[in-house]
């Protein structure tokens, strides 16, 4: 690249954009000036330019550490089309190919060199880097250094050595994950003590957030896709590989072009599916969360979750893949009681110590609270990331169709006394289904067999429908007034349950809207 060009020249002449966005300009000037930076910017915010432009302005090669091996080729091709000298080193290269890139680097022919973190951990890689001139280090997806995050990569922990070996080379760490805790952890673990922090707003105003009660997920999904997103590209996230395959089949059977993506598929199939999704119009990718990190497809019109994400960070990141072009898009999540039971079970049986499990639990609780809120989803989401907005958004389901809240104290007492009788008096383990049957006064075989029709609470809950009881249970779980444990989702009391039973605490619950937000109302522009 010709030297002497300023950041704005490079933006216009190389990348063809008129103006910087948000903090881009400040970040870029800071790094060009040799400063370290920690950049927290939402997906689609334009993080790449923050290191690509300094790479072109500063002498030497920018070394970009990225875990996204599958995308390196793509990124490098895009840069080369713009006339930027870029190369990458990862496990997909054979020895000869790697030698070519290494020689280019040593000869000072590269503006950018992308490298996978596991590669960098090898002594050979460090010797190679010592042969060239380094303009800066960019550490992409920096939250991978966080041991609490779901993207943890052990190799990221070694990256602090870059600073020890090259103390004068500026470093820029970038991520779209931004709770205060992760933020601090990145700074500490990467040794970014002197770094300036650039925190952008995490609001994605063009994404409409909607969370619905899961009844018949397939039918609900189909209605959502047919009613609002015919012919549009989007992602459907499922928890397991098995459900990915089944839902993809189901959509295809119903005339919706869908592709599966999960870590259990053959590499080639995965690459093909990803490629088709990026290049063709109107495909629906049904995937586990293995799909999506670093995917830059601007016109993803919706992200649907058929299972509850494990944390708000995950939810935010996954939904953030919608609407990168700024056009109206929808984040739709169907969630039910079974999700809570299943995730609690996964936490209970997860590896790791008590602290780790408590951490997972807290993440899940925050996610549940978001699902059950009567307040604006967006403000809750932003508040979680420490960005209070203090206003409502008019572009989420709770703003568009405010749910009523009702005094559920009596309902909660009925439910909790049922749980109390089973747990404390009879020492029996039952899940939501049996409790609801007791409350509704249903004489099923299982009720008769266990003499549950003899309980005083039998039939006291016939004023609510089964779906309403499920909603009550979900919300009590979300409020910590009830817990579930074990393989069969046994309902148990918590420390706070007694306050409700003892009439010392009022319980406010959210009433599900009768009809979901219609397509017309949803099409907010
Ligand atoms: P991130 O890595 O933060 O998710 P990207 O760097 O991939 O985001 O940028 C998202 C999209 O925005 C890309 O298509 C990129 O070309 C575009 N973009 C970035 N900066 C600008 C800008 N200043 N003006 C116009 N488009 C931009
Ligand atoms: Zn809102």
Features:
525 residues; alpha/beta; 6-stranded parallel sheet; elongated; disordered C terminus; binds adenosine-5'-diphosphate; binds zinc ion; zinc
Taking the alpha carbons of the first and last residues, their distance comes to 41 Å
Mean pLDDT: 91
Strand content: 5-15%
The level of helicity is 40-55%
Which stretches are low in confidence, meaning pLDDT under 50 for 5 or more residues running? 519-525
Q: Biggest sheet, open or closed, and with what strands and sense?
A: 7 strands, parallel
SSE class:
alpha/beta
The total strand number stands at 17
Architecture overview:
The protein is α/β, with parallel strands linked by helices and 525 residues long. The protein has 23 helices and 17 strands. Strands 3-4-2-5-6-1-7 form a seven-stranded parallel β-sheet, with helices on both faces. It has a six-stranded parallel β-sheet with strand order 8-13-12-9-11-10, sandwiched between helices. It has a two-stranded antiparallel ribbon with strand order 14-17. It is elongated and about 85 Å long. The chain starts with 6 loop residues before the first helix and ends with a helix. The structure holds adenosine-5'-diphosphate and zinc ion. The site of adenosine-5'-diphosphate (ADP) has 16 residues, from helix 3. It catalyses: Couples ATP hydrolysis with the unwinding of duplex DNA by translocating in the 3'-5' direction. Belongs to the helicase family. RecQ subfamily. This is DNA helicase RecQ.
Q: What is the gist of this entry?
A:
The chain has helices at 7-13, 24-32, 48-57, 69-81, 95-106, 117-120, 123-130, 160-165, 180-189, 217-228, 241-253, 267-279, 312-319, 337-348, 354-372, 377-384, 397-400, 409-425, 432-440, 445-449, 466-478, 497-501, 519-522, and strands spanning 37-40, 61-65, 86-89, 112-115, 134-139, 171-175, 196-199, 207-213, 234-237, 258-261, 284-287, 302-305, 329-335, 405-407, 482-485, 490-493, 508-510. With 525 residues, the protein is α/β, with parallel strands linked by helices.
């Amino acid at each position: 690249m010709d030297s002497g060009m300023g950041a704005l020249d490079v933006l216009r002449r190389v990348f063809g954009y008129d103006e910087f966005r948000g903090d881009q300009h400040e970040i870029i000037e800071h790094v060009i000036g040799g400063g370290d930076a920690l950049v927290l910017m939402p997906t689609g915010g334009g993080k790449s330019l923050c290191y690509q432009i300094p790479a072109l302005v500063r002498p030497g090669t920018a070394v970009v550490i990225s875990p996204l091996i599958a995308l390196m080729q793509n990124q490098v091709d895009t840069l080369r089309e713009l006339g930027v000298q870029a190369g990458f080193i990862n496990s997909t290269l054979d020895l000869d190919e790697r030698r070519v890139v290494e020689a280019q680097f040593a000869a000072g022919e590269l503006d950018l060199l992308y490298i996978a973190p596991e590669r960098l951990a090898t002594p050979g890689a460090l010797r190679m880097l010592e042969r060239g001139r380094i303009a800066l280090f960019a550490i992409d997806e920096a939250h991978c250094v966080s041991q609490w995050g779901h993207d943890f990569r052990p190799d990221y922990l070694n990256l602090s050595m870059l600073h020890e070996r090259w103390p004068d080379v500026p470093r820029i760490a970038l991520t779209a994950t931004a709770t205060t805790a992760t933020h601090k952890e990145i700074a500490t673990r990467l040794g970014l003590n002197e770094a300036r922090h650039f925190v952008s707003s995490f609001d994605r105003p063009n994404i409409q957030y909607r969370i619905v009660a899961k009844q018949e997920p397939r039918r609900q999904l189909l209605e959502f896709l047919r009613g609002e997103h015919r012919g549009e590209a989007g992602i459907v996230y499922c928890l397991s590989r098995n459900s990915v395959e089944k839902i993809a089949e189901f959509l295809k059977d119903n005339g919706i072009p869908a592709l599966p993506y999960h870590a259990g598929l053959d590499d080639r199939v995965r690459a093909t599916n990803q490629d088709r999704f990026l290049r063709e119009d109107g495909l629906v990718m049904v995937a586990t969360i293995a799909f999506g990190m670093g995917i830059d497809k601007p016109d993803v019109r919706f992200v649907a979750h058929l299972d509850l994400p494990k944390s708000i960070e995950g939810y935010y990141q996954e939904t953030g893949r919608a609407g990168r072009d700024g056009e109206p898009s929808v984040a739709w999540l169907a969630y039910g009681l079974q999700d809570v039971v299943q995730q609690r079970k996964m936490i209970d049986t997860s590896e790791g110590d008590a602290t780790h499990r408590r951490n997972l639990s807290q993440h899940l609780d925050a996610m549940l609270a978001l699902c059950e809120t009567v307040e604006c989803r967006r403000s809750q989401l932003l508040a979680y990331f420490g960005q209070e907005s203090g206003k409502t958004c008019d572009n989420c389901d709770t703003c568009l169709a405010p749910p009523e809240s009702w005094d559920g104290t009596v309902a909660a007492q009925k439910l909790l006394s049922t749980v109390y009788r089973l747990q404390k008096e009879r020492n029996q383990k039952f899940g939501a289904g049996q409790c609801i049957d007791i409350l509704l006064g249903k004489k099923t075989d299982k009720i008769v067999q266990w003499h549950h029709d003899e309980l005083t609470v039998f039939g006291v809950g016939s004023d609510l429908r089964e779906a309403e009881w499920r909603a009550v249970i979900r919300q009590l779980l979300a409020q910590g007034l009830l817990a579930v444990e074990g393989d069969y989702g046994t309902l148990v009391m918590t420390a706070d349950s007694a306050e409700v039973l003892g009439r010392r605490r009022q319980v406010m619950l959210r009433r599900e809207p009768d009809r979901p937000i219609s397509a017309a109302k949803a099409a907010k522009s």
